[in-house]
Amino acid sequence: MDFELISHTEQKARKEYKSDNIEYLTEWIGHGMYVNGVLLRGENGGRYTKEQSHVDFADLRKIVIARRERYKILVGTIYVKQVYKFEGDGPYVSRMRKDMYEIMCKYDLFGQD
To answer: What gap in Å lies between CA 9 and CA 47, rounded to an integer?
Structure first.
């Protein structure tokens, strides 16, 4: 896969956006999360390691808040905007809540396929 990042910026939302690439996060949550060694939900079907499924309590709080807001980028929320080309096509624009972007980077959740 040929992926070329053109720009990466952080912006404050002036209108509401749908958060892109959130399916990787929701799939990860569905497979189960460990907090202090205890499996909270899901059955952890083996796709993610226990280390990758372990979540800090602070990150869990961010996920709960974002989930309550349906992972949307609401007015006033800081978000990450990336412009990229994929396999020579594009440019494509991706927007994601900054807190969810940081969690996905921390737990290496982008492009698990």
So the answer is: 31
pLDDT band at 107 (very low <50, low <70, confident <90, very high): confident
Predicted model pTM:
0.77
Please give the Cα distance from 99 to 108 (Å, whole number): 14
DSSP state at residue 19: P
4-14 as b/e: b if 16+ CB within 10 A: eeeeeeeeebe
Average pLDDT along the chain: 81
Handedness of CA 57, 59, 61, 63 (dihedral sign): negative
Give the containing element (helix H, strand E) for 3.
Answer: strand 3-12
Contacts of 99 (CB under 8 A, 6+ apart): 62, 65, 66
Q: Is pLDDT at 94 greater than 70 in this prediction?
A: yes
